[in-house]
User: Which sequence fits this backbone?
């Protein structure tokens, strides 16, 4: 879990790293929309207002991004939400993020790990720090390229599976 100082530094780094103008950085509200393709749940929420994350909205996001296999809910890292907000702003889209995978419990993740497979044994999904997404009206190549250009974490391209992975771990691409 982030301490307040780490969280503020990460958030400011996301905003500065994304090259947003001061006016955009001072937006009084930030919202995100999700369409969970496995559960059918949809959510549009103002997750940040008046200079802070909105706890009730973040809890609703945690629920929509839960492990759809086990039903386990865990906190989604606020810097991941900020990364998604910046990405959506860069894409200039109002469409929801279609969610392939948000949080994954360690047990679910372990069951998905296969030799030579695409699931890491210590996946950031298990810490609420990664999400697999696509966006209606936005090609995967553009989504991948915009996420990569942000240089705010890992970006994985999975065109055969029709999604892009983004996380707030170290900057890397695959």
Assistant:
């Amino acid at each position: 879990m982030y301490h307040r100082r780490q969280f503020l530094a990460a958030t400011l780094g996301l905003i500065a790293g994304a090259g947003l103008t001061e006016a955009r950085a001072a937006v009084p509200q930030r919202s995100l929309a999700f369409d969970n393709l496995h559960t059918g749940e949809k959510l549009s929420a103002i997750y940040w207002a008046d200079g802070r994350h909105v706890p009730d909205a973040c809890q609703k996001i945690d629920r929509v991004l839960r492990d759809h296999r086990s039903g386990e809910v865990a906190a989604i890292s606020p810097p991941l939400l900020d990364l998604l907000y910046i990405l959506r702003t860069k894409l200039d889209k109002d469409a929801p993020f279609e969610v392939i995978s948000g949080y994954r419990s360690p047990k679910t993740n372990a069951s998905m790990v296969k030799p030579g497979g695409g699931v890491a044994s210590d996946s950031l999904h298990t810490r609420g720090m990664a999400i697999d997404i696509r966006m209606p009206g936005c090609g995967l190549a553009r989504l991948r390229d915009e996420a990569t250009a942000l240089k705010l974490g890992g970006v994985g391209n999975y065109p055969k599976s029709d999604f892009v992975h983004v996380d707030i771990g170290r900057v890397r691409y695959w």
Notes: The chain is about 35% helix and 25% strand. The mean pLDDT is 87.
